[in-house]
């Protein structure tokens, strides 16, 4: 069994096969941009929550319109939502491309987005429960 990735059907002209591969790689780069953006939102939300949890330990900060926990939850939810939108867009694009590129390699970005989404949900639960 060969370790080479699946190839587009040889019946397609070389220029067409290369164009399809460039398009697939562009979709992967776009998906990774969604992942980076979502990771930033999730990380900032959790970091802000933890920073202010440590800095305000034992101090009465008084009433606020939006507290650090609410702001952190907002950022984390925004990150998870960004991840979901990016994942759905990536899946839609790859399905459309698969019609013309039947031997298309499997996307590794899918696994990364699922893992980061899971981390985002865990961060959300952690902040929500005040851990």
UniProtKB/TrEMBL annotation:
<feature type="transmembrane region" description="Helical">
    <location>
        <begin position="31"/>
        <end position="51"/>
    </location>
</feature>
<dbReference type="Pfam" id="PF02656">
    <property type="entry name" value="DUF202"/>
</dbReference>
<dbReference type="GO" id="GO:0012505">
    <property type="term" value="C:endomembrane system"/>
</dbReference>
<keyword id="KW-0472">Membrane</keyword>
<feature type="transmembrane region" description="Helical">
    <location>
        <begin position="109"/>
        <end position="129"/>
    </location>
</feature>
<keyword id="KW-0812">Transmembrane</keyword>
<protein>
    <recommendedName>
        <fullName>DUF202 domain-containing protein</fullName>
    </recommendedName>
</protein>
<feature type="domain" description="DUF202">
    <location>
        <begin position="22"/>
        <end position="95"/>
    </location>
</feature>
<feature type="transmembrane region" description="Helical">
    <location>
        <begin position="71"/>
        <end position="88"/>
    </location>
</feature>
<dbReference type="InterPro" id="IPR003807">
    <property type="entry name" value="DUF202"/>
</dbReference>
<keyword id="KW-1133">Transmembrane helix</keyword>
């Amino acid at each position: 069994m060969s370790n080479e990735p699946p190839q587009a059907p040889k019946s397609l002209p070389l220029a067409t096969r290369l164009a399809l591969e460039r398009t697939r790689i562009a979709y992967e780069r776009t998906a990774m941009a969604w992942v980076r953006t979502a990771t930033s939102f999730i990380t900032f939300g959790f970091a802000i929550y933890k920073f202010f949890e440590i800095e305000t330990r034992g101090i009465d900060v008084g009433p606020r319109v939006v507290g650090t926990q609410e702001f952190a939850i907002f950022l984390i939810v925004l990150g998870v939502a960004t991840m979901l939108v990016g994942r759905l867009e990536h899946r839609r694009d790859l399905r459309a491309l698969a019609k013309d590129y039947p031997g298309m390699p499997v996307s590794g970005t899918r696994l990364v987005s699922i893992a980061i989404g899971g981390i985002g949900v865990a961060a959300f639960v952690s902040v929500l429960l005040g851990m």
